[in-house]
What does this fold into?
Amino acid sequence: MNHTIVRFTLLTLVVLGAVFALHLYILNFQNLPLYNDKIVLSYCINGILAIVVVAVLYILREKYKSQLGFLFMAGSAFKFLIFFIVFYPAYNQDGVVSTSEFFAFFLPYALSLILETVTLSKLLNKLDSTAS
It folds into this structure.
């Protein structure tokens, strides 16, 4: 496995693990249930999907260089689809997506997206510099 993918995987695990711990600490501090709202599943799915998207784009970087942006957007659309299949029905069961439900999904989603974007931006810059 390539060092870029391994490095991204480790970074994703460390960042999401640290934020998950902080998230649980804040929930505990506010006397809220720690493991409601599919929080563990959300962090796991968002982490796994981020790693898969980056790995696939890294593997396809040479062959589909000019389409990587579109492939990245397809990966984001896939993650939204997963949200609407796995999380939204449970979150919207009572007709309202609560703040804790929102943050249980949005924090790992946003962090994963930021990590993906930074990593893929560096990858694209590296591809552009080698092409010149």
Notes: The chain has one domain: 3-127. Residues 3-127 form one domain. The mean pLDDT is 92. The radius of gyration is 17 Å.
